[in-house]
Amino acid sequence: MSVAAAATPLEMAAAVLPGTPAAIVERYATLAQRAETRSFGLIEDDVIVLDTETTGLSHRDSELIEIAAARLRGREIVDRFDTFVKPSGLIPEEITKLTSITNADVAHAPAAVDAVASLAEFVGGCPVVAHNAAFDRGFIEQVPGGADVSDIWIDSLALSRIALPRLASHKLAVMAELFGCESVSHRANADVEALCGVWRILLCGLADLPAGLMRRLADMHPDVPWSYRPIFSFLAAEEPDAVFSLVDSRYELLKGYEEAEIGSAARVDADELVGVSVPSREEIEECFAPGGLVNRMYPGYEPRSEQVQMAVEVRDALATSTHRVIEAGTGVGKSIAYLVPMAELARRNKVTVGIATKSNNLADQLIYHELPRLAREMDGGLTYCALKGYDHYPCLRKLDRLARAQEIKTNRDPADTLTAIAVLYAFACQSPTGDLDGLGIRWRSVNKADLTTSSRECARRLCPFYPDKCMVHGSRRRAARVDVVVTNHSLLFRNVAAEGKILPPIRHWVVDEAHSIESEARRQWAIKVSADESRAVFERLGGDRAGALGKIARDLALSDAATLFMGLTVKASSSAQRASLAMAELFDAVRELARAARSEGGYDNANMWIGNDLRDSMVWAGFEEVGRTALDALDEATKNLTSLVETVAEEKPDLVTDVADGQRRMRELRDGLRLILDGADDRYVYSCQVNRRLKAGGECLTAERLDVGEALAEEWLPEVHTAIFASATMTVSDSFDHFQHAVGLDRISSSSSRSVHLDSSYDFERNMAVVVASDMPDPRSRDAYLSALETLLVDVHIAMGGSTLTLFTNRRDMEELYDRVEPRLAQRGLALDCQRRTTSAKILRDRFLSNEKSSLFALKAFWEGFDAAGDTLRCVVIPKLPFASPSDPLSCERGAREDRAWARYSLPEAVLEVKQAAGRLIRTSTDAGVLVLADSRLVSKGYGKKFLNSLPAPHQRIEVRQVGRYLEMWRESHERR
């Protein structure tokens, strides 16, 4: 390994997460040098470092094509293993491009079973280190004899997250470059060489963690087999007397940090300013001119008139304390357009401004790319932070408690929970602030509730980390002292519901990706009474011998007032048990209600509107009787729990945290049930949900705000000086009316807001085609429609050579067509995937993006926010217009109150969804693609013009039998360019 090539402190500072303390950066920058001389004894004696290459990412249908390994003793590689592996089929073209492994290379290679047998002989049972070991191990162990290779697999990817928690990326290639190791080339032997160098870096990183932490990790849950335990045990032996305290580690880390990083003064509430200093239009235009601020941020930047226009619009809104709705087409560069004037306002006036996004992708882009560049180039600098909900941060009190608990309650591999604990300890010891989202924890195997908290559950003053050493409250304190806060839509609307008690007093907002905020606000403000929440509350409370109530009974059994406490505990426990039984009967009644009322919905879930007709029925009368019984039981239990909490808190306040949380949650269940049973508050839509796939569980009663715009106009817009709503999809047939109504701007003075459309800087007419299959049968004639759609989909996929995303509105049609179409495409060598219930959206995305010729049938999760630039995605097919179901409770309630509800709400919402789906195609100036619309109602119904006039490119009406030929010609013409 060449230490001379390792990153300098300045380069390392750019490779770590923003906000990393300088001491941590310096420590990382010297790791390569220290690894050259450090000895790790037995844990680096006879270690096998391994990597594989395969025909794809899926263990189900991909195969090994190369295995490489090296035997490490100390710093030396003493032996090597490398072999091609002959797969049963041909190597996909994209894999050959990536790895340079050809079919000729593997033609005479050993079969997988022989290659793995030779590997097992080479390994000889020694520990195996691999980056993302589950991937390599899975491919090796699915070969007969593969399980004999080794019993100990060490995942260097997970270990790197423990050893170096502040790195922005833990990819092997990134770490190899940072620490001067061999470069990665997507060949197994080269990757092994790189990992041999990185391995010792990781051991040094672990040794740098606080004294005593290695012992804490090595000793926790000794009954759980965990491959990292021997490493931690060895390192712990170097400091046998060290005692670890996370509280002390946080204290040392945070000493002087905030003052050094962001200053000590809280920002001013803009409401208290006499006048606001805003940059002039000329100053904003200069920022985007050649040699200006943006040019310094991005040396190759070329000014775009639409971007400058948007920046000036944002500046004008700030100067006049008015609002803006800005539809900015793809390629305008809207994030920089709003960041520049917003940042200038914050810096000049010492106020905090807010940016709210829908997706984590955009939030990460702002926090890790745009804002750091802006901060470096702005005169006087710029401070910023991300702020998310409670469940995005580790609860350090729970972390300590879980590490010391007697057992781990999980249905999955408990070793994954131990790894999560280790990652979080290391992260907390080196991170003044930060969240869970980028830590790579396998939440499908780890119970997130064991390591996070909620606003209701948080112990606050009873917690040893509160407030400064807590990552949740520390982030909130920091947010009150920075120029720019980046958050998400959900937290913004939770803050509105909490009357501004979550976020700092921010009076200037940009709401990006604003097309979806109405539905997000409705979701955040929904009041739910669910079987899952009810069960969780009663399980947490327990009884007089178990759970939170049992703990109080045990801990106070010897106190002077033991008789009083025991009496209150027994009374609370008994009433909680009665309430639990009553709620179980309630949810049985919910299921019966849905069955008796013949509720509609998908074939997985029933979603039933609770309207006046249902409330007047005999079915409802029977249900309401059960509901009132449950309500009385909840009321009694809530009162008894309140008495217990108030009495015990006087003597032992630290004992009542969990019971107080249960009491609060039970009170919310009671109040929500009363609201829904009464049904008197006409601001809400009432409904119930049942999972038809389960015999029990998943039942829910819901109350949602009907008119989100009214709530925003009354509860949020009056509290802010300027709100900038930005998105690429807001207008319907060039009209902003639907969006303005959705966010409440039509309920305030017309002079206080302005709407602006800015065209995309991309050439949609040249690069995008819109095809309407004009003679498709009506979707309501299901058999004829699906038969024609099958023919169309096969033709489209063959003509485009794959690279097609088909977006369905229901699972039943999607799965039936997949079963028909996939075998026909397979005969042509085209891969087709499907969004099955058991497959995660992330796995599908990764699989799609890794193969330019693959195609995907998908549902709602892929209609927006899915980016696949270049040839990976060249065609989007929309089989059916995405109208809301007529039986959807919101549609039913609107229809009952307004005669033209469908045209006013369902139609424009469907138009915007189609615009969003079309937006998946053109993500860069060089992208080209085709949108195929397979719903003939676009030409047979008058409302079809609304859809077609809202798309960024003109459309062609083509018969189904000619669509394939048209696409072939389109593809040929674009590939010649």
TrEMBL record:
The keyword Calcium does not apply. The keyword Disulfide bond does not apply. PANTHER family: DNA REPAIR DEAD HELICASE RAD3/XP-D SUBFAMILY MEMBER, REGULATOR OF TELOMERE ELONGATION HELICASE 1. Residues 293-581 form the Helicase ATP-binding domain. Keywords: ATP-binding, Exonuclease, Hydrolase, Nuclease, Nucleotide-binding. GO terms for molecular function: ATP binding; DNA helicase activity; exonuclease activity; hydrolase activity, acting on acid anhydrides, in phosphorus-containing anhydrides; nucleic acid binding. Belongs to the helicase family. DinG subfamily. GO terms for biological process: DNA repair. This is DNA polymerase III subunit epsilon. InterPro entries: ATP-dep_Helicase_C, DinG/Rad3-like, Helic_SF1/SF2_ATP-bd_DinG/Rad3, P-loop_NTPase, Ribonucl_H, RNaseH-like_sf, RNaseH_sf.
